[in-house]
Amino acid sequence: MKRWVLFSCVGLLGVAAVVIIQRNKVDATASPEAMLHLIGDTEHELTRMPARFARMPDEEEIRIGNELAKLYSDEQTQNNKVVSEDGTVQEYLTRVGLRLAAHAHRKLPYKFHYIASPWLINAFAVPGGHVYVGGGLLSLMDSEDELAAVMGHEIEHVDHYHCAERVQQQEALRKIPLGELVGLPIEIFEAGYSKEQELEADREGTRLAVEAGFSANGAVRMFETFDRLYKETQAKAKTPQEELSQVALGTLEGYFRSHPPTPERIAQVQKMIASEGWPARPEHDLEVGYIFLTAKAESALNEVEYAKAEQLANRSLRIRPDQIAAIRILARAQFAQAKFSESAAAYRKLIEANSFDLNSVSSYAQALAASDRTTAPAEFHKWAASVKGQKSRALAVEEAGLQLLVGAPQASHKLEEELNRTGSVIEVTQTGEPLIPVWLGDLGWWHYLAGDYQKAVDLLSAAVQERPQNPSLRSQLAWAQAEVRRYADALQMTQQVPGVSPMARAVVLWLSQEREEGLRGFGAALRSQPEWGNPAWAKALYSATVVQSVREMQAEQGLRERKTRASSRR
Question: Residue 477 pLDDT more than 90?
Fold first, then answer.
């Protein structure tokens, strides 16, 4: 008898499942992923059923949610460094979230939280109205409407009691009274819900966003992004280092396992747009998108993807033009691509926005000189004359250096005498070190660019004596020593100090007839600083000897690679 009752229950569940499936049928491409979701849905529904018979009181849900949120917030504060932009993002999430929550059925005290981790490509909610959005997910968005779709989805998980039921499931499974469930791990809520619940949150979340004035297309585009990322995770599972870290990849795989197939989610929203007759509203920029674009631009710059860094920095600056970090990235990326005129303009903007940053002053002068040596002195002088208030000696150093390039050494000689007078200059770095060695080094490099290599060696040697661990000064001295054929001294300059130019060592080895070792170093140097492969860049910044050496090493490297390929085909 018991066996027949069991079979009857199973049969009734099967019939109910068919009815539910037909009622919520959505056109979507079939895939093996659907079977995984069917298994997961069965587990979700079996544990969910008892919770449907007795709703948790709102007051109890809010109390539990507040306790969980407090514990999670304390954990986040301890584990993550808070940066200045976090408050901006938090305020923005709250503004968008409250606009959405005003249209929710349940009038709960909704609160919205930002988790700055770039690896959290997810959003989730806890009972009582707390909604969390990860930095990794925000970085994938282009529009506020995409954010509204995501936040609307999470609000509906609360609005339709999905979060509350998850707590009641844990009460039943763990046999712990509701009052003692405040220590539940947050992962319980980060995990997805049943397929029907997820699709319900998609439907109602999109409806919520439209009612709040957002474009329904934001949901479609967000799901399209998820679909692209899903395909990337499958393609990049063997080489995750190409774009996504192992942590981010794991987060994404967990997300895709716990949510319905993305094509099905897209099809459902598109069907709703057609049936509801929702207006085709324009999407609006994600207000805080500049923060994530700048971070991506910096990452691209560090990966020596200069064109990508420039493009991302420009996109970020279109949203917020006064960002110092984005302007600096733009200037460096343009300089590395030999876009010297554009780089000079960016450096000048950076100086004006950053209260006269001395490093940027030097870079501005270098970019002007690389762009056009004949006009650079006059252009720099005109700008320096417009600077208000007390002027740093850095302006005089760069102006004197630029004069050297047009055959006017008088300003440089006078400045050198002043710098060598004890106590004549009191300017120091932020760490309290005198700036005289830095300025002597700058003057030395200008002499190098002007072709006076022995003078460059003299000034740069004096600077390195004062700052022996400075990699930039050591690199510049090595370049100058190579020009006067002091190869042993130049090689010594390139040793033992991190940050010294690897190309300087490769060129010196090549010039000193250590061809094999030089060629090995050349390959590594070119990978770490690919701008050396641009003849226009090298010619504007280094001597003819250096340019010729680089050309010879490139030719020899290419010849050997062709021979290797030909040999492998035999």
Answer: yes
